[in-house]
Amino acid sequence: MRATSTPAGVPSPPRRWSLCSPKRLTEAAAGGVVGVGVDVAATDRFERLLRRNAPRLWAHWYTQAEVEECLRHPRPALAATARFAVKEATYKAVGARFVHAVRWCDIEVLGSGPGWQVSLKGEVAAQATVAGAQKLHVTTDETADRVIAVVIARGSQSKSERAPSPPTYASPQSMKGDRS
């Protein structure tokens, strides 16, 4: 397909191109992708929150193990921001909804990129099981003031192949031998 030119002489993209065509979405679903979650979090926000009321922030958003890891980090606010971004992206990837009060401690994020370890409990774990999520693939990247997290939830090829057991999760570092 030829690109057309705008009046200013700048080429416009082809008109029929779509990355989200129904056919491509069906192919992705058949390949076992249950959901994708993306989140961008601002480090300065967490720096402010930690200055204002650190005990409240830690208690509401993080497990004790997460708090300990963040406090050992040279930049605790950055570590907290990364975990928050992974939690949000995970929540989106497994299709969890704000049915009741969200318990952010039900999503525990330990380690660091590229070796994130994510474990789920409570309603988020139940929603992941209902959605058929058996693995979470997690990646993060950071700039001076932002952290982005991408989580891909994968299941089996069909609902009949999905195991009713709690899902297991992996980061890219722990998936090197996984070719499924």
Mind explaining what this structure looks like?
By secondary structure, the chain is α+β, with helices and mostly antiparallel strands. It has one domain (33-174): 4'-phosphopantetheinyl transferase domain (Ribosomal Protein L22, Chain A), CATH 3.90.470.20. Helix content is 36%, strand content 19%. The protein contains five helices and five strands, in the order H-E-H-H-H-E-E-H-E-E. The strands form two sheets. Strands 1-5-4 form a three-stranded antiparallel beta sheet. Helix 2 (43-61) packs across helix 4 and helix 3 (64-72) crosses helix 4. Mean pLDDT is 77; it is low at 1-7, 10-28, 162-168 and 170-180.
Sequence-ordered SSE layout with sheet pairings:
Blueprint: H1 22-30, E1 33-42, H2 43-61, H3 64-72, H4 76-93, E2 107-110, E3 117-120, H5 122-131, E4 135-142, E5 146-154
Antiparallel strand pairs: 1-5, 2-3, 4-5
Helix pairs in contact: 2-4, 3-4
Structure at a glance:
The protein has 180 residues and is of the alpha+beta class. The chain has 5 helices and 5 strands; from the N terminus they run H-E-H-H-H-E-E-H-E-E. The chain has helices at residues 22-30, 43-61, 64-72, 76-93, 122-131; strands spanning 33-42, 107-110, 117-120, 135-142, 146-154.
